[in-house]
């Protein structure tokens, strides 16, 4: 496969182990060494890495709160586990009581099965849903009915209209399928977390209203934490704000070049056709104000300057919302197919800063966890299981600084690891995908995201040219292309190839047409591999684990803490 560069010369996209010495951006790291992208000044300058260690609760350095506050037990309001009867009304009474508590509150679920047949809506801050554990003898939430049956809200009317307007049809002639996408393919959950009265999905540009501006950015440097503003009189230390960049000059907007670099790939129209919708959003905290200089909690995603303006805007959000120590159980219902999901979704979280999910098992879901318009989340020790084919395991979409740590994907999933539209500086750390592993870098200005030390079980096929496996399978419509922006990174990923592939085989690891500026460092396997990525990425250490820095996130976090 060949693609002409801007000078018209052919650019070889297949990067082989045997070509390492001939490729200026490809070098084999010696075992135990740090890769050149972390040590060589020229390489680092030409191929910068964002500091991914800011992902997670409290910018990656603060512990998740352990204080239960006031405990409201659902059994005190009539829920009786394991009696085979519906507990929804009792749980809703308990939730109402928890909402009436001032300060930190924990809604506690008992051991055994609690049956729920309505959506549980979390609309306040400082609340934790907690159980006795996700394993045997723990707390199970049993959801026997899909959202298609029980969701009577108007939350997704805007999304429904969008699906019709854009003619979003799932068409599979060989299966006699020609149906409109469902609204629950990437939205909605049995537990729905959002500020009261907020707009949970935003698909109609006519309904966009810009958030109130607190300050206009004057000057700021990408990857630095300070920003000069026109006036800081409306900013206070501790404020959570959104830094928003807009495509102010349509397809010629400077922010698009900052997103994608000097690429020849076409850039989709959705990047500029909604003028009141920012193309890049960074939710962050004000940590210091000195005159007109503002220090933010995490580094700027992009420059701020006259031709690439940005604003600090108000953001309506919740904070300190957690869900932990629970098993979500859905029935063994049929799977209708991709984009036809009926809504066996676990959690949908939007409008949250500093939240967490941990110690969860989600069985037989259409999607386990869906996120949107959120930031500084930690999602830890989540396992998705079941025989039904799911859409997402954990979906990272339109979010910033989300850390997904120690995820286990044991069920068949179309997009097992996904950084979706407008996701920035989010991290999948030590995820393990048990079968059919693919990486979804979904079109829509997602950039500066990291897949770190993940284990991916794959099953290559043998063709006329040898063994091959497509690892990168990015979704998205043409109006949101390219597949991703600059600085998406795959670090020290391990491919597990079955014994059916001969030990002396070389497996070609391929992509479709993705996006510019990808970094692939330390991709290795139990067979020889070659990497074919389109367009050409920075690639280093193929076939060798990164022994000196097994996790880029941990390496960067340790340097910050020093």
From TrEMBL:
InterPro entries (UniProt xref): Pectin_lyas_fold, Pectin_lyase_fold/virulence
Signal peptide: 1-29
Keyword vocabulary terms for this entry: Signal
Name of the protein described by the UniProt record: Pectate lyase superfamily protein domain-containing protein
Organism: Sphingopyxis soli
């Amino acid at each position: 496969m060949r693609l002409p560069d801007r000078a018209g010369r052919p650019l070889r996209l297949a990067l082989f182990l045997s070509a390492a010495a001939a490729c200026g951006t490809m070098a084999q790291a010696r075992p135990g060494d740090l890769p050149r992208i972390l040590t060589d000044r020229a390489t680092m300058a030409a191929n910068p890495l964002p500091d991914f260690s800011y992902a997670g609760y409290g910018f990656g350095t603060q512990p998740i709160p352990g204080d239960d506050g006031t405990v409201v037990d659902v059994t005190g309001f009539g829920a009786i586990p394991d009696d085979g009867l519906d507990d929804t009304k009792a749980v809703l009474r308990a939730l109402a009581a928890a909402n009436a508590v001032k300060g930190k509150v924990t809604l506690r679920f008992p051991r055994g099965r609690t049956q729920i047949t309505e959506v549980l809506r979390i609309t306040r801050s400082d609340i934790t849903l907690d159980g006795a554990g996700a394993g045997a003898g723990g707390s199970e939430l049993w959801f026997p009915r899909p959202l298609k049956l029980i969701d009577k809200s108007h939350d997704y009317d805007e999304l429904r209209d969008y699906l019709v307007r854009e003619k979003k049809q799932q068409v599979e002639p060989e299966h006699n399928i020609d149906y409109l996408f469902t609204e629950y393919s990437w939205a909605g959950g049995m537990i729905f977390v959002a500020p009261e009265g907020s707009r949970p999905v935003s698909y109609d540009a006519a309904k966009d209203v810009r958030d109130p501006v607190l300050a206009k950015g004057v000057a700021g440097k990408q990857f630095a934490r300070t920003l000069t503003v026109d006036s800081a009189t409306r900013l206070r230390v501790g404020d959570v704000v959104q830094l928003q960049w807009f495509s102010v000059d349509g397809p010629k907007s400077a922010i698009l070049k900052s997103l994608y670099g000097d690429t020849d790939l076409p850039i989709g129209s959705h990047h500029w056709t909604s003028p009141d919708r920012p193309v890049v959003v960074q939710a962050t905290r004000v940590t210091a104000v000195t005159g007109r200089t503002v220090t933010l909690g995490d580094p700027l995603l992009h420059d701020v300057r006259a031709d690439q303006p940005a604003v600090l805007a108000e953001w309506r959000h919740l904070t300190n919302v957690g869900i932990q120590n629970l098993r979500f159980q859905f029935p063994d219902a049929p799977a209708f197919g991709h984009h036809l999901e009926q809504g066996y979704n676990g959690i949908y979280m939007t409008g949250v800063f500093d939240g967490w999910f941990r110690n969860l098992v989600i069985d037989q879901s259409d999607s386990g966890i869906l996120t949107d318009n959120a930031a500084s989340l930690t999602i830890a020790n989540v396992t998705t299981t079941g025989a039904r084919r799911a859409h997402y395991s954990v979906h990272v979409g339109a979010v910033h600084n989300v850390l997904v740590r120690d995820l286990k994907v044991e069920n068949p999933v179309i997009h097992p690891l996904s950084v979706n539209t407008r996701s920035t500086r989010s991290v999948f750390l030590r995820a393990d995908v048990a079968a059919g592993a693919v990486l979804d870098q979904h079109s829509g200005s997602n950039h500066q995201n990291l897949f770190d030390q993940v284990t991916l079980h794959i099953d290559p096929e043998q063709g006329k040219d040898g063994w091959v496996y497509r690892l990168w399978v990015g979704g998205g419509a043409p109006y949101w292309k390219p597949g991703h922006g600059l600085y998406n990174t795959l670090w020290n990923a391990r491919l597990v190839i079955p014994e059916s592939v001969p030990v002396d085989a070389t497996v070609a690891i391929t992509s479709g047409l993705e996006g510019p500026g990808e970094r692939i460092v330390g991709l290795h396997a139990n067979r020889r591999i070659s990497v074919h990525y389109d367009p050409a990425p920075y690639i280093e250490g193929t076939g060798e684990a990164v022994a000196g820095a097994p996790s880029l996130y941990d390496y960067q976090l340790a340097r910050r803490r020093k």
